[in-house]
């Protein structure tokens, strides 16, 4: 699992992930994470310690600030903020913020249909929109209207057996104790700056950060919310009971059984990688900051945004598109 071939096929066009390597896969229930290591890109402000939500001007209008004394902030794609007794919002796009700069996103989406109050800096925590909502949210970038995602959120809640309301809080907050188990069951490795995510054996997303610190600060938001929501819904039926024990009468036999199980698991995941749909992807440049370029990638099976410096991929957040949604475009 150390070849770059699979990564190169997922990041299309002239973008390069030279030097990036896949590590040993980890699984927790229906969620499989394949860690990615590689060269760090200096000068990027991490999202939790450097990037702050300074205020919500009105519904659908969110202002973020890069509070770091130096370095540019890459706003994570589909980041959202939660606080008790306040109106929760998520962004539909990424962006650049220079050191000390504030930026008003007037195309943010409210993800809580009927809760009063505006979000402030105090006691906030952030998430990334669940994978099931990301295709629609990306499509709505640049579109003003705070309630534009409510119908999709209500449909998602209904599919998960929850009340049909435009309240993402029904999943993010009320199911948070369950979702945060993925954070402890999967291990963030030293030097890790990205990951491939699979849900139920199917490709769900590719996340690449500029450096390990940036990715570490995104870890909970990605594992628990962006991909953990779908994995929680796809968890194996508990009624099936525990897995069968290994047939071994001695320690050497047990080790051999474990090695065989691990080899079969790696072969299966290699098959998942080979089965990831590929095809033409359209790249549209959205924004520039010095030598950095922010682009939106859209294809029949894949969508998201990337930041590049020349042909080097600095940041990537790419997710699988649902066949029904992709076919309707």
What would your notes on this structure say?
The chain is α+β, with helices and mostly antiparallel strands. The protein is globular, with a radius of gyration of 20 Å. Strands 1, 2, 3, 14, 15, 16, 17, 18 and 19 form a 9-stranded antiparallel sheet that branches. 41% of the residues are buried. Helix content is 27%, strand content 30%. It is built from 10 helices and 19 strands. The chain has one domain (5-235, 273-328). Strand 5 (51-58) and strand 6 form a beta hairpin.
Q: Could you provide a short overview of the structure?
A:
The protein has helices spanning 5-10, 131-139, 150-159, 169-172, 176-179, 181-185, 212-226, 228-233, 251-274, 323-328; strands at 21-22, 26-28, 31-37, 44-45, 51-58, 61-66, 72-75, 79-82, 89-90, 95-97, 102-105, 109-110, 125-128, 192-199, 202-208, 282-289, 292-298, 302-309, 312-320. It has 329 residues and is α+β, with helices and mostly antiparallel strands.
Topology, element by element:
Elements: H1 5-10, E1 21-22, E2 26-28, E3 31-37, E4 44-45, E5 51-58, E6 61-66, E7 72-75, E8 79-82, E9 89-90, E10 95-97, E11 102-105, E12 109-110, E13 125-128, H2 131-139, H3 150-159, H4 169-172, H5 176-179, H6 181-185, E14 192-199, E15 202-208, H7 212-226, H8 228-233, H9 251-274, E16 282-289, E17 292-298, E18 302-309, E19 312-320, H10 323-328
Pfam families: ARPP-1
InterPro entries: ARPP-1
Protein name: ARPP-1 family domain-containing protein
